[in-house]
Write a structure and sequence with these properties.
Layout: H1 3-6, E1 9-14, H2 15-28, E2 36-37, H3 39-43, H4 47-57, E3 61-64, H5 67-73, E4 81-84, H6 93-98, E5 102-105, H7 108-121, E6 125-130, H8 142-150, E7 158-164, H9 176-189, E8 196-198, E9 239-251, E10 256-257, E11 263-264, E12 269-274, E13 291-294, E14 297-300, E15 310-313, E16 325-329, H10 335-341, H11 346-352, E17 358-362
Parallel strand pairs: 1-17, 2-3, 3-4, 4-5, 5-6, 6-7, 7-8
Antiparallel strand pairs: 1-9, 9-12, 9-16, 10-11, 12-15, 13-14
Amino acid sequence: MSAAETAASVLTVDLSAVVANWRTLVARHPAGPVAGVVKANAYGLGAAVVAPALHEAGCRHFFTAHLSEALAIRPLLPGAMLGVLNGLRPGTEAEHRAHDIIPVLGSLAEIALWRAEAARAGARLPAIIHIDTGMARLGLTEAEVAALAAEPTLLDGIAMRFVMTHLVSAERAGDPLNEHQRARFAALADRLPLALRSIANSSGIFLGPRFASDLARPGAALYGINPVPGQPNPMRPAVRLTARVLSLRMLRPGESVGYNATWRAERESRIATIAVGYADGWPRSLTNRGAAVFDGGSLPLVGRVSMDLTTYDATDHPGLRVGDWLELIGPARPLADVAEAAATNEYEILTALGRRYHRVVLGA
């Protein structure tokens, strides 16, 4: 028997959906190219399969969060720009240069490190300059931008590929922070040497032409997460998660299931157990709140989500048998519904999906 036939749980990744989503975003951002943000293992889908699929489709700009992530996929992306969003750590300068990985520089200290590496190399080295316009995590402050404007030699040896910022609240189209950041970014970028600009993330692409720039940087939307919450999702779902029923057992009224007896049967109940738990990234916050789907019908999650197992009330599904599959994420159980039940966002659900699932890649 194949691994898929014997697996206890299966995570299916649809690369054709990822590529279709990228093309949808390209069509909505004619001002410039659309990058592929493949940090966090391509939001849990697998950067080693997602990045090459996007590259084959024509994507030529990629971002990760960490240098280690970039190094892992650099051989898979010939000729593509590959940037590291979390900045330049001391001691990694030569590794960036050796593997043609572009640091996103977010402080005068990082700029000084890269300038020194350029002097050692005897060449101008490409970089992306990050300006903070309100996120207050990474990026040059207004005072640091002023320092660069006052002393242009601080950028000696650095070839600015892009200057970028990161939107705080792009998924809320009416939030005045968006326009504030757009205007502030334009004013601060104008003080630096002329360079291409990058502003829009996934939701930013949908804010309209005022937020268009020379490079958009979507992440979540590539993987099917809705960039316009409250409106129909223009993206195709890219993930399906199913789990096989390991056991079925009957509970009498008053009997409990799972740790700490957080759920007790109010009637004679039939309990289905699957081999998915918080060690697989299935949120413990779904305890007594989540659901799975079988044959179009919902099975409430009952009892605690434990490390390796989760239990569902199958009383109203007499046709369910051991070995049948429950849908945890998919067409009948959208990712957004799972995130809402878990009191979190879709990003966290996807990026937490663990290594124990049997993975099936469609369109590879």
